[in-house]
């Protein structure tokens, strides 16, 4: 609206130009600084300077100093893993920086007695501002004058019905004017407004906690305490093995001592697991994106597997926000195909067929249109008004009235208590009920100018409408019940209405859903946690209560997912372990959610949860592969230090064998179908699985390194060629033990998994016969006596592996029982 367009005269002059200038100078404008708690430097620093990167980088530098660059190729994993982390968090930062609940547009304010349009950011505290139908309220204000202003506050409160505002009422930024207009005085601007306060809380960066990453970090922390002293001891032992520091420096053998020490250190770090975790999360996100599901934080893919409690917002999740016509019930009990019923429906169509019908009117037009009704004759019309709560038409013979039952009946003569009882019964079933009344005869002379309901009109029908329930809601909720995920509906609407919808979608299966008014919830978080165990549906929930509900469920050690589409859901979605926003949600809600259902289809949630379970279950499987290497590397390093023998293999051996028996097969196994629900205790199970294979591999390598030189008559301390042959044999043993462990992890082998194991075993052996590969990775093909010794070593290693598979778990069990006995 421009200045030339007139607004109602109120006598209010508004702020003067000087007052506006002074308020702007003091910073009391509606501008909000947009920033997140994470700068670019913070993101880069957090991803580059990690414990994992520090260990790998230090090891790589040590190897490069010796000039053996072939043994430093393991360092590339730093660049890949760091890059994935930075890109992911930068994407999250950009999303958060764009977060805004308010739509930036121009607004009409009164200054110096004139109405002028100004941008959203130039509104100042104390401004007189016009709020017109269709506009979003840009700042908190108090109503001075109103001309039938009605606000949609669903984005703030979750209440789906519009709210009529009166003079003196407060209105809050983020709500939207549905009808009417008002002159208001701005009471809070910028960062102090309600919407900006919600935005500021939502913008605080929160990293999703990953159980896998926590487990990996626990391993890394343990390794840190072990790596530094062990590395020093390994260098000392390797130098001592060649005759001491003087000989090592004079002959240059200090270089091989450093490389050998790094071989032990690098083997203990599950560098591939860190990389595979990031890549697997990214691939899961890509797969979900193909199903219109946007994953905004990669780690949240894992959280999907652990969810056991799902809080659902009603509007936009279980329902799609639309309204539908359910039925037109004649109060005389007649059938729908009678002449009276047909006349009532035709009148209902014409009553709803206004210039700009509201949501209920549109639903009625759509429903009756499907039954073949079209526009009839309307001589005169009284349009619907939220102030009157009714509308009316005169078709030339009859005056028809439609509106809120209690309002219409209050104008009629006679006792209609039985009609009101029917209205209440239908309302308790989740219906929005309207009443149709008729009066046969001419319309009054002042029908349109001074409309009233004729007292002799009589009620003839009830119109039943309801929110449109998503077609996929019932099946989706059934899937969650079968998977052991407890679902609750949390809404700002009437708990009886929400409870009726929960009953229709069979939220609790065959049992009746238990509902409660959130105003009766205890404020104490512990009491709230106990109360929630017996509640399936909550109505009249405020935004802060939604957040408190999530916190209370956390007290019960539940992993909570929260869905929603309004700003009122943003804080709860952020507080939840997994926030899920609908694609038609407010920008603030989508920005803080980890997962966005782009096409707003609730039925995508089972796919989302199933993908998370696949990632978590498979990552637990393949983590065992990586931890086996950690175990045997630590034990071999300890054995080398204690017996002061040359280190049994080179870093490049670990790179080659690790890629074929751990890295590449792990990547394939991580993508295999798996719907097992995640059970807490990831690290403990992985360690128990990895110990037998790790101990067996360490014993086999150490035994070969002690016994083979004696059998073959080698002096590996003085002969580099003989040491190279010993390391070549050990590489073959490492390959075989790696294949054994892979076969154990990949079970059952009577499918493609068996073919996978055989393929990588064949590839590992074939690489020894390819000159370039053999030379680069220092592989040897044994022959003669050495071949016989190798077969003997392999047989011994296989026996050790089988024995360890039986003995180590027994010993772990005995230790666990002993520990429990001591604690009790």
From TrEMBL:
Question: Domain P-type ATPase A, which positions?
Answer: 108-201
Entry keyword set: Hydrolase, Membrane, Translocase, Transmembrane, Transmembrane helix
Q: Which SUPFAM superfamilies match?
A: Calcium ATPase, transduction domain A, Calcium ATPase, transmembrane domain M, HAD-like
Task: Check the record and name the Gene3D superfamilies matching this protein.
Answer: Calcium-transporting ATPase, cytoplasmic domain N, Calcium-transporting ATPase, cytoplasmic transduction domain A, Calcium-transporting ATPase, transmembrane domain, HAD superfamily/HAD-like
* Pfam families listed in its UniProt record: E1-E2_ATPase, Hydrolase
| Listed InterPro entries | ATPase_P-typ_cyto_dom_N, ATPase_P-typ_P_site, ATPase_P-typ_TM_dom_sf, ATPase_P-typ_transduc_dom_A_sf, ATPase_P-type_domA, HAD-like_sf, HAD_sf, P_typ_ATPase
Q: Which GO terms describe its cellular component?
A: plasma membrane
TM helices/strands, residue ranges: 43-66, 72-90, 219-237, 257-283, 622-642, 654-674, 686-708, 720-743, 755-774, 786-808
Membrane association type: Multi-pass membrane protein
| Compartment(s) of residence | Cell membrane
Entry's EC annotation: 3.6.3.8
Q: A Gene Ontology molecular-function term? A: ATP hydrolysis activity
Has keyword Transmembrane? Answer: yes
Protein name stated in the entry: Cation-transporting ATPase, E1-E2 family
What is the scientific name of the source organism? Bifidobacterium ruminantium
